[in-house]
Write a structure and sequence with these properties.
Helix content: 25-40%
Largest sheet: 5 strands, mixed
Structural class: alpha/beta
Distance between the termini: 30 Å
Oligomer: single chain
Strand content: 5-15%
Radius of gyration: 21 Å
Number of strands: 14
Number of helices: 17
Length: 450
């Protein structure tokens, strides 16, 4: 169980996928972006050129920085990255065509989590990266390796864990006489939210309709899922009913409401949170970058804490969102590409750069305990938040779970239905939870032919 939009281009539509995508930008029909290289890769004349496709420009900067580190440490097998940034849908579609034909494939490619199951159907046309992860495996969050695995083989390496945490506006809570450190369970969260609403007339938490961060967390804690291991629909199961009953109960108690945009990770919600309309957000760790980029007025006011849990929780938290970097099996330089990307994404050196550049909670937990990195006073995230995120991350590092349905090819169907119909029915239209889930079960089975 151990387990920015580039900031102007990323959007919340990634939440439509079951586990969501922390870095999925809006679809676009624009031509390939003109990537402007500003990082010295320190590559010699004998360096091997590797073609890398991505849909987030900031990822390219990270990869070039890591190429510089790699080349300094491996003078006998240097790499020169050619970065190609494309619109989200265009890149994934182009990749599917290249893998199907076996020609024109890149050496390395970013695949967003919600799309990844499409590339592991049947016999994956991706290189097995299991052996390349082995040197780092003891320090990695297993659930994030499992997320990009099939039949015990690993096909992608993520940037982060996306650990689901709680973000509290301490200025607002202190004024209302609420101590966020006493919130340990979902009952505590509901009681605190009801008290806050009664005392201030304002909203405490969010009831999300365009994303599933909170329900995914609750299902991980309850040991339930939307799909079974064979991809069969289980959204009418007791655990799913219990998860949504808890969220509905929080809303009914006045402890949460639907935010602008339907979830915290939207442009409309950033403005509402920044002006104090909400005091608590349950979101993956990468939501930190939204605060620093879009909510400057809250600097020094936001505390990060472990998310609330249910009694007898199977796990304390789950990861949310992600982008897995893969190596196409038809690539000309697949061994070198695999060795480089394992170093860039899994080593402590790479994970330090991921934290510094992207603000993510990286997969290598040995970095989580290095105070010289995690508590560096010059770091923008350390400066912004009232508490250090790694204090909360280390508190849950031995209990980070994974919804197995996140790797199912049926996951996008579940995510799409829930974030366009089911959640709105429950939290906006007042449809009873059991009725909404029964309808979702029927609709999904019809769609998937089950």
């Amino acid at each position: 169980m151990k387990l920015i939009r580039s900031l102007a281009a990323m959007a919340a539509v990634g939440a439509v996928a079951l586990a969501g995508g922390c870095a999925q930008p809006s679809s676009s029909s624009q031509p390939d972006a003109q990537y402007s290289s500003t990082v010295d890769q320190k590559a010699g004349k004998a360096a091997t050129t590797l073609e890398l496709w991505t849909f987030v420009e900031l990822h390219g900067k990270f990869y070039e920085t890591m190429a510089g580190h790699w080349n300094e440490q491996h003078p006998d097998k240097q790499v020169k990255l050619h970065i190609n940034v494309m619109p989200y849908d265009d890149m994934h579609n182009k990749l599917q065509l290249a893998l199907t034909s076996g020609s024109g494939v890149p050496d390395l490619v970013d695949i967003e989590l919600g799309k990844f199951p499409n590339f592991t159907k049947g016999t994956p046309a991706l290189e097995d990266l299991t052996s390349y992860a082995d040197p780092y495996k003891a320090d990695l969050v297993k659930a994030r390796l499992d997320l990009y695995s099939k039949d015990s083989k690993i096909y992608g390496f993520d940037f982060h864990v996306g650990t689901t945490l709680a973000f509290y506006n301490t200025e607002l809570l202190d004024a209302a006489g609420i101590d966020y450190t006493t919130i340990k369970t979902w009952d505590d969260f509901k009681d605190a939210g009801a008290k806050y609403h009664q005392g201030t007339g304002k909203d405490f938490g969010t009831t999300d309709t365009s994303a599933m961060w909170q329900s995914n967390l609750l299902l991980g804690q309850l040991g339930g899922d939307y799909l079974d291991s064979a991809g069969n629909v289980t959204v009418d199961s007791p655990q799913v009913k219990q998860a949504f009953a808890i969220l509905k109960g929080i809303q009914d108690a006045g402890a949460a409401s639907v935010p602008p945009g339907g979830q915290p990770d939207t442009e409309e919600a950033y403005g509402a949170i920044n002006k104090g309309d909400y005091a608590a957000m349950i979101m993956p760790e990468w939501f930190m970058s939204r605060f620093t980029a879009y909510m400057p007025d809250l600097k020094g006011k936001i505390a990060i804490a472990p998310a609330p849990v249910v009694d007898g929780a199977k796990v304390k938290t789950v990861g949310g969102g992600g982008t897995g970097t893969a190596v196409p099996a038809a690539g000309k330089n697949k061994a070198l590409a695999a060795e480089f990307i394992a170093y860039a994404k899994l080593s402590k050196d790479g994970n330090e750069e991921i934290w510094k550049t992207l603000g993510f909670d990286p997969m290598n937990t040995s970095m989580w305990k290095d105070d010289s990195i995690t508590k560096d006073p010059s770091n923008q995230y350390v400066q912004y938040f009232k508490t250090n995120p790694f204090d909360s991350l280390n508190a849950v590092s031995d209990s980070i779970g994974l919804l197995t349905s996140a790797t199912s090819p049926n996951a996008p169907s579940v995510g799409n239905l829930f974030t366009t119909e089911t959640l709105n029915n429950m939290f906006e239209s007042g449809t009873p939870v059991d009725d909404a889930l029964a309808q979702a079960e029927s609709d999904l089975k019809n769609e998937l032919g089950q």
